[in-house]
Design goal:
There is one protein chain. This protein is mainly α. Helix content is 65%, strand content 0%. It is globular, with a radius of gyration of 29 Å.
Amino acid sequence: MGADTAVAPPHESAGSPRGKAPAPGRPRRRRDDRRAAWLFLAPALVGFALFYAYPTVRGVYYSLTDYNLLSTPGFVGADNYRQLIGDEQFWNALKVTGYYVVLNIGSQTVLALLLATLMHRLTRSVALRAMLLVPWLVPNVTVGLVWMWLLDANLGLVNHVLNALGLGTTGFFTSPDWAMPTVAAVNTWAYTGYTALLLYAGMLQVPQYLYESAALDGAGEWRMFTRITLPLLRPVLALVLVVSLIGSFQIFDTIAVTTKGGPVSATRVIYFYIYEQAFNYFHMGYASAVAVVLAVILGVLTAVQIRLLRASRSDLA
């Protein structure tokens, strides 16, 4: 060993600060980031408290009163809920809403699956995806107005074309039989592209080698869709169905613009019924009770959907 070589004493460590080794058995102090985390979460928590939690608590309170916007709320207990049980208009609005939910979710999901599968298996054009998203970006009020003009029984372009073909005129928004299917078709047109993009994003997570192996085994497109794509798409499909269910129960703007609940209550959905009770008749307490019941119904249906579809599990593992 040369004379210029220095050897560190045994009790010192070359990697420790100032040549001192950490005390044995003493855990290293970890940085506490909880304050920073709460600081970043604060805006979202404040927004949630102001715009979600407080209105919810306030709504539950109003549902137990006879508040009518013009006088001080008076506590009436469960009277509003007892009145709701015997309210035929409420049950009719719930039935009409259920009819719309079935029409809208059924048509929207089937068309979105078809579009997503075509994009996934045939083309992945960015321009096509952008075009599919355009109807979703248009405000619902504008969508309702445009389709109301297009489907008008007297001046609408669609009825002019039907007359030219000798098929006669159809009152799409004025016929009790056609009004709700027409509203469902309008919203299906507006939201199918967005739903298709969500499903398409889920399909991109499916490994490509599964399709290649199935093709080598002689499987056709339909067999690959039912045996590979659909099972592995279950978590995303569950999300889409839950979001679509909640959105369908909350349909209001298209109804308010086109049919205003008519004809003959054929399109008086539950949200429009709540609006009428609150702002037409000033039954704020009763409207709050209906809104609370609707929130409970949505919560139960969402939980059932998630449980049946096993949304938290994926077959990709």
